[in-house]
Write a structure and sequence with these properties.
- The protein is 61% helix and 5% strand.
- It is rod-shaped, with a radius of gyration of 57 Å.
- The chain is mostly helical.
- A hairpin with a 4-residue loop joins β5 and β6.
- It is built from 32 helices and ten strands.
């Protein structure tokens, strides 16, 4: 059951790290979505015309303002442009004339009555209804109207005139060929240079572009008068007939008001609403102004443009895009970039820096808009160049490493471009500055280096501003000078922010930065002073190891400051039992002589555990704690292991009991301390430390550690081991160099001779105490013999 619980705990621990990192990335994506979505201020309260506006209101996004007056004007123009529609149907008029001719033919008298025809021209017709084959009812049905007695008599009288009936027959076939309208004045009022005609007979539609193609009904009657005028018909009879014809005649072209109105309404509705586009960043109304009708309409359009459903869809899409981008870049970097391996703490730190910096940039945008109101001669975009874009990359580089800072900078600058309205040049500006600042804070050993990095950052910012200004084709005016000034200030603002927050980050996240290492490198720290007092041999050993690893770290490109400081503290666990370690015994009784080998091994191993506890108590940081734990790896305590084998002839000794618990060195700095620790300890055992012996000893120990597999989990290469060996040889040769034997002073030689003579019983010559005796054979000062003794000749 215990084994099962242990396995479940291991599985939970294995999956908790990736899950936590994914949740952190999702939270960061959500936070960025919240900051990016409202690209400006919120829609203000309702204003009425004449109200005083309380603050500047800019367009947070592109939107359209409807123009109802212009829309109505264009609709009226479109409706007016629709020409009048007339229906053309000549059939009723022609049918009327034909029917009228048929009536006249039917009313003609019989042949025996033809002798009266001549008399019709001389005497007025008698208004007497005659008996005809066609009755009055039939005539009215043909003419579709009621006839009076006089009108019927007129028709009978005219029917007796053969010439008139003949002319009437010709008119019925040829008259009304032109298009006639009831009112020519009304037609001219509807005329727009063109007219649409729908032919009801052929069901075709065409246009008339000449107004003279249409005549009025009165004109048509005038034409009929001319066609029907004959000497056999009196003027009064013809006028009465034309009056009857005017009553019966219908125009062939009639105005279709319903169709015309429908077409004009359709044309008006087809006109799209006229809108005015307001661009993002455009000033809608300024603080202190009286709101006008135009401004009120714009504010209302801004409120109406905030479509909730569309905003939710946009937010979801943006969140998905940002989360996917973060996951892809993070996953790619972990698999392909060797030094990109952030744990949960590192990722939490980067997420917080990313989120807080992005919020500061968002606030900076609002402040820039407010500053433009205070200083209208400076464009708000000028203030953007003073924002601390590179502060995040500087912090990440100081705390972590260059690879992580590179990935952080790329993602941050992509989001900055999105924040500034898809501004690619602003992303370029931020990326160039971030990488420059991250490079110049590398291995900073003093806080003044931050301001040096800020100076280089300002220089790059200036060059980027000039390049962006040239690409945009902007004039070289005062705005360029403002941009350059704010860009130069931006570099030092980043340095100030990093300098003020680095201590807080060290305290909250328990990071050991280079600045923290510089503080720990002070030999007067309480733990090092205690080490110097309780274990002076270990203290001296740590100093020598620090010198060895610092030079070796510089040779292979590791962090020399971290290596040196870690060397100072790697053996602080020996403070608890200093007299059980050889460098602190100094001729005293060796306490291990009274202990079993296994107990001695436990005491030696315990200094790792004690060192970790002391490091945590003194808040040395995780990096130093890890090196303290790893600097022996899983190496074998060979002296006591061999001693145990000698005592136990049966071979029941377990080798694992005599190995350090590990883990093996995980970083190059931890591996350097392991190598330097072993080399320095072995160097003390050399009786004649010549350069050749030192070189052989160094190579032997490095090979032994390498073959034992202690360097399998760090990033040292064979080339690195070669450079480390060369560095160790150079430093150890300087430490164990041969010293020159200086000649004894004359008075010491004389005292020595006296002591010898006293022991042998010989009398020494008495010398005056007033004047010193100078040997005659003594060489002069500065002679060649002195140079030979000093080894300088």
């Amino acid at each position: 059951m215990t084994h099962k619980r242990r396995r479940e705990a291991q599985r939970a621990a294995r999956f908790s790290g990736p899950l936590q990192r994914r949740l952190l990335l999702l939270l960061l994506a959500l936070w960025l979505t919240v900051l990016v979505m409202p690209k400006g201020g919120f829609v203000p309260d309702d204003y009425r015309p004449g109200d005083i506006v309380l603050r500047d209101i800019k367009a947070p996004r592109d939107f359209l303002v409807p123009e109802p007056a212009l829309t109505e004007k264009k609709r009226q123009e479109a409706a007016t442009a629709v020409v009048a529609v007339y229906d053309y149907d000549p059939r009723p008029g022609r049918l009327l004339l034909k029917n009228l001719h048929d009536v006249l033919v039917a009313l003609r008298p019989q042949p025996e009555e033809s002798h009266e025809t001549q008399e019709m021209t001389e005497a007025p017709p008698e208004r007497v209804v005659m008996t005809t084959p066609l009755g009055q009812t039939d005539i009215e049905a043909l003419l579709e109207t009621e006839l009076s007695t006089e009108q019927l008599a007129l028709l009978q009288h005219l029917a007796a005139n053969d010439d008139f009936v003949t002319r009437m027959g010709g008119v019925s076939h040829t008259a009304l060929r032109q298009r006639t309208v009831a009112s020519l004045d009304l037609f001219r009022g509807n005329w727009r240079g063109v007219m649409t005609v729908r032919d009801l007979a052929t069901q075709q539609e065409y246009r008339i572009e000449r107004a003279d193609e249409v005549i009025g009904l009165s004109d048509a009657l005038d034409q009929l008068r001319l066609a029907l005028t004959t000497p056999a018909v009196r003027r009064n009879d013809l006028d009465a007939f034309l009056a009857l014809l005017q009553k019966l005649l219908r125009p062939s072209l009639t105005f279709n008001q319903s169709e015309t109105e429908n077409r004009r309404l359709a044309a008006a509705e087809a006109v799209q609403p006229v809108v005015q586009q307001v661009k993002r960043g455009e000033m809608i109304v300024r603080e202190g102004d009286r709101a006008s009708d135009e401004q009120i309409r714009r504010l209302q359009a801004l409120r109406d443009s905030a479509d909730l459903a569309k905003g939710v869809r946009t937010a979801i899409g943006l969140f998905g895009a940002i989360a996917l981008l973060f996951w892809v870049v993070h996953h790619f970097a972990r698999r392909n970039i060797r030094k990109y391996a952030p744990n949960t703490r590192d990722l939490l730190f980067m997420v917080l820096v990313f989120g807080v910096l992005f919020m500061l940039l968002k606030v900076g945008i609002f402040v820039s808009g407010a500053m433009q109101s205070a200083f209208p001669y400076i464009d708000s975009a000028c203030y953007y160049y003073a924002l601390p874009f590179a502060a995040g990359a500087m912090l990440v580089r100081v705390v972590l490493n260059s690879e992580v800072a590179l990935v952080f900078s790329i993602l941050l600058c992509l989001m900055i471009g999105l924040l500034f309205g898809d501004n690619l040049f602003m992303a370029f500006y931020a990326l160039a500055g971030s990488l420059t600042a991250a490079h110049w804070v590398r291995h900073s050993k003093a806080r003044s280096n931050l301001y040096r990095a800020g100076g280089y950052l300002s220089l790059v910012n200036l060059l980027m501003v000039l390049a962006i200004h040239a690409v945009g084709g902007h004039p070289y005016d005062s705005q360029l000078l403002y941009r350059l000034g704010f860009a130069a200030v931006g570099g030092f603002i980043c340095a100030v922010i990093v300098n003020g927050t680095i201590a807080l980050i060290e305290s909250v996240f328990k990071y050991t930065t280079d600045f923290k290492l510089m503080e720990l490198a002070n030999m007067n720290t309480p733990i090092l002073r205690e080490l110097m007092i309780q274990a002076p041999g270990t203290y001296h050993h740590s100093i020598v190891v620090g010198n060895l690893v610092e030079n070796a770290a510089e040779a292979i490109g590791a962090n020399p400051l971290l290596a040196r400081v870690a060397a100072y503290y790697h053996d602080i666990g020996k403070i608890r039992k200093p007299l059980y370690f050889a460098e602190n015994i100094r001729g005293q009784e060796n306490r291990h002589d009274k202990l079993a080998p296994s107990m001695s091994a436990l005491i030696l191993i315990s200094h790792l555990k004690d060192g970790v506890e002391l490091a945590r108590e003194n808040k040395l940081g995780r990096e130093l704690i890890d090196i303290i734990r790893q600097h022996h790896g899983t190496s074998l305590i060979k002296f006591f292991y061999d001693k145990a084998l000698q005592r136990d002839k049966d071979g029941q000794v377990n080798e694992q009991d005599y190995r350090y618990p590990g883990p093996k060195p995980q970083t190059r700095e931890a591996a350097l301390i392991m190598l330097a620790d072993a080399v320095e300890a072995a160097g003390r055992t050399l009786s004649d430390p010549t350069p050749a012996r030192i070189q052989g000893m160094v190579q032997k120990i490095i090979n032994k550690i390498f073959i034992d597999g202690q360097l399998d989990e760090c990033e040292l290469t064979l080339k690195d081991l070669h450079e480390i060996a060369k560095s160790f040889n150079r430093i150890l040769s300087g430490i164990f160099h041969q010293r020159v034997e200086y000649p004894e002073p004359a008075y010491k030689e004389r005292d020595a001779k006296r002591e010898v003579k006293k022991k042998t019983g010989e009398d020494l010559p008495r010398e005056s105490t007033d004047e010193p005796v100078v040997p005659a054979a003594a060489p002069a000062a500065g002679s060649a013999d002195d140079l030979k003794r000093l080894g300088m000749s």
